Fold:
Amino acid sequence: MITETLLTWTARFISGVSVRWVESQPDTCQRVYFANHTSHLDVVLVWSALPTEMRRLTRPIAAKDYWDSGPIRRHVASVFNAMLIDRKEIKVHQSPVDMMLKEIGTTHSLILFPEGGRSKGEGIGEFKSGLYYLSKKRPELELIPVYINNMNRILPRGEVLPVPLLSSLTFGPPIWLESGEPKMEFLSRAREAVVNLKDR
Amino acid sequence: MISEIRDWALLVTVLALLATATLVGQWLTRQTTLGIDEQSVKSFNRRVQAWWASSVLMGVAFFFPTLTVFLFGLLSFWALREFITLTPTRMGDHRALFWVFFFFTPMQFVLVACENYPFYSILIPVYAFLFIAARVAVSGDVTRFLERVAKIQFGLLVCVYCLSFAPALMYLKCQGVAEEDTAAGARMLLFFVTIVLFSELLQFICGRLFGKHVIAESIDTMRTWEGVLAGGAATAVAGIMLYWATPFPHWWQAGAMSVLIALMASAGALTMAAIKRDRGEVGSDTLTENHGGVLRRIDALCFAAPVFYHVTNYFFGVGGP
Structure:
């Protein structure tokens, strides 16, 4: 509880974040929030931007190789109720998507970063296919695009010390996988949904 | 005793002026027949709110000067944040920016609170400026090198160095001020801030009344030569009326100082408007919209503070002519 408050406020102070909901409302229904990924603070920011009630029901997906190394990171990951996914060893009968679906059941929501890692510059990378398989198995899940602006300048990849500029988080209107929609088409549509929030 | 009466009189004057401004603002909001456009009334009311906030800041100065320095430090930090957010920087600037935010900015205000003038007057122009250039060079990114360095330096100069001279006024020793008059510094700061705020208001009003020749149309369509000059003259009258609160020996000196403050204040506002125009509204809207725009509120103070401080020190400071 103390760690949560401390981390949330530190992250908010460093990122000077302002949160906006564009054509979208906070809701406790089952959702998948997907965002562009530029810094280690992203997970904390998106998670703490949600109202408390929803926050309790939302689990961020984080990379196991990073968040499971060392007691501090492990503790932080547990505070945010993060679901650690192995990026390196993906087995056939234990796919990450199945694990995610099993964990969230019928009540929890997810935060994920479909680029699979932090992007380098300002651009948003191609999305990995996890988001597609997730909604193929559970097409009724609301997919909420989230655009994180300016975090790449606050804590860029490869830097440990942050520069406290201002950033913003934009939650957009939900999208769904349409029946029979091809994988590549869906993934680029999802990516566009995030990119479009940039100018909203 | 006399100075104590003076302190209370000044506080009461400021409160009365603020209350009047608030009432006028409320009255204007309800008038629909006068033909004043809503936007101006809104911006006037926002200004009045900012005045209340800064007056509280000044009121604190009478009792806890160090706290006022600290609050100005926070203001600086936030303004610099907005400035650098609006300015495109590259990865190579990251480490330099870290030191700017977490070392030079706090250090400047710590030195002001310690009254270490010989050090805080050069910390940024000498040490920080050279450090920024060197640190960015070490990062090895040459793209638009000079431009990037200059942007960080300018941000630090205006948001931190210049603004820090406002709280520094509290520690400025003037000739003819009794040693036991501990509130003299706080009065000086209150005089300065009140005159800056009034000059903004008077220039705004004069600009609307007599404005014909716009100074720079591409930057600010509202700022006219008539507004600046007539506003400056009106500010002089306000300054003369507040003469009793200043350490200046003659009434006309308070008036002349007020004109100087008014001219610097509009120079500051015009400069900041130019920077904002250059960056375009695009970059600023989503990032700074919820933060009230600290930078826009302090632009006039930033330019007026160091000039007022040094001119006062030169003519009236202990050791001056």
Q: What stands out?
A: Chain B touches chain A through 18 residues (CB under 8 Å). Residues 175 and 189 of chain B are 16 Å apart (CA to CA).
